[in-house]
Design brief:
Largest sheet: none
Distance between the termini: 50 Å
Shape: flat
Helix content: over 70%
Length: 124
């Protein structure tokens, strides 16, 4: 079971990395762009290693089902707390509230990404 969770986690990292790389497919990366890409990938890997270490509460070097579930629950609780601004007065979220929140969050990410790309073009 522990090996299965580790394989699933490694697979998720590989998929995320390939999706990110695919995002830049066909682009020529000069030395600066390639270095920034490598730096970004290193940060993603470091973040995953940090999350894995936090989930491995017994320090065994592997994550059990219970450790995995506890880590996911903690992430879900943090996400719920972060999204508290879309909760209604009753402390619950409707589908419409959740969808509006997620749409706003996605639009903010797109705007940030666009601004970063425009900044790079200006600085070239």
């Amino acid at each position: 079971m522990k090996k299965s969770l580790l394989v699933i986690g490694a697979g998720a990292v590989a998929l995320a990395a390939s999706a990110f790389a695919g995002h830049h497919e066909g682009e020529k990366m000069d030395g600066d762009k390639a270095a920034k890409h490598a730096e970004h990938m290193a940060k993603m890997e470091a973040k995953m290693a940090e999350k894995f270490a936090a989930a491995d509460t017994d320090g065994s070097g592997t994550v059990s089902k219970d450790e995995f579930m506890a880590a996911r629950m903690a992430e879900a609780e943090a996400e719920w707390a972060d999204g508290a601004d879309y909760l209604g007065d009753d402390g619950e979220a409707s589908l419409e509230e959740v969808m509006a929140y997620n749409k706003a969050k996605m639009e903010a990410k797109k705007a940030k990404h666009k601004a970063m790309k425009e900044g790079k073009k200006d600085g070239e």
